[in-house]
Amino acid sequence: MSATPSETLPIPVSSPLTHAQKAALVNLVRRAARAEIMPRFRNLASAQVTTKSGPDDLVTEADHAAEAMIARGLQQMFPHALIVGEEAAAADPALRGKLAEAELAFILDPVDGTWNFVNGLAMFGVIVSVTRFGTPVFGLLYDPVMDDFITAEEDGPAQMTRATGRARPVSVSHGGEIDSLSGYMHFSLMDRAVQEQLAPLMPRFGRVGSLRCSCHEYRMLAQGHSDFLLSSTLNPWDHAAGVLIVQRAGGVVRMLDGRDYNAGIKTGYLLAASNEASWQKLAELFSMLVDDDPA
Predict the structure, then answer these.
(1) Which of 129, 146, 213, 215 stands 20 to 30 A from 87 (CA)?
(2) What's the first-to-final CA gap in the chain, in angstroms?
(3) Structural contact between residues 103 and 133, judged by C-beta atoms closer than 8 angstroms
(4) Angle 232-16-152 (CA atoms, 0-180°, nearest 5)?
(5) How many other C-beta atoms are found inside a 10 Å radius of the C-beta of residue 268?
(6) Where are the domains of the chain?
(7) Tell me, what's the pLDDT at 196?
(8) pLDDT per residue over 169-191, tens digit each?
(9) C-alpha dihedral over 36, 57, 183, 289, to 10 degrees?
(10) Which family does the record assign (predicted)?
């Protein structure tokens, strides 16, 4: 029987979450989506939407309510864990700085793709990752609209589970030459000087865009529907789960300067690709970003 949020579950120290812990986490996320997210989709009043860092950085009642429900449930199940939600970190930036030192941490984005959510686009998700000293050991990319999700842990395959409960492994694409690759680049979030460096490279790809939702960008990459992702906005609630899931689906994800990803890293460029050969070709193409990075 799956555990419920009222039960205190043992803390994993040297292994990923148990089956009961994973089931309890997924069930908690699904309940939060049904109770706090989906009833507000295409049903938000203007007073229920505010901004944070800029006019496109939106936050809604759904973000706050879903994060509160998920965080409360996680704290009940794992009372000694560090819980870092996107909205909690916005209110207390010091929370993010604790991730690299935390033996067990849960990082959550209650509504990833809030701009899409606010504007009625059915491309948003819930992201939850579990990290050990900043290294992802479990990831969940959940789609509230379809009620399906992709999960992975550090020693197992990435799997898509449908609403019916049917699960299957997912795998990345075969990659290829630069002119055949399609991917995502968080271009509008980069500094203007970086945009000017990257803009001439755009025509070299098969296709480059952005879904304004890291959850679905990583889902597409893990399922082999796109080939790469480049980001300089390293919010751990956007990336930690997707990094692990793409890796366990057969992909390669590292910082552009070659470092392994860690949720404690705050600056630099994160590059995900479908295989090592594609990663190396992309890293060479984007090498000027490393040369110019003051970090």
Answers:
(1) 146
(2) 48
(3) yes
(4) 55
(5) 18
(6) 19-169, 178-292
(7) 96
(8) 999 999 999 999 999 999 999 99
(9) -140
(10) Belongs to the inositol monophosphatase superfamily.
Q: Is 155 marked within a binding site?
A: no
C-alpha pair distances (Å), 107 with each of 41, 55, 163: 23, 25, 23
Q: Is 292 annotated as a binding residue?
A: no
Confirm whether residue 101 is marked as ligand binding: no
- Tokens (6 digits) for 167: 């699960």
Can you tell me which residue has the tokens 């295409």?
42
What superfamily in CATH does domain 19-169 come from? Fructose-1,6-Bisphosphatase, subunit A, domain 1 (3.30.540.10)
61 annotated to a ligand binding site: no
231-245 pLDDT, tens digit per residue, is 999 999 999 999 999
Architecture of domain 178-292: 3-Layer(aba) Sandwich (3.40)
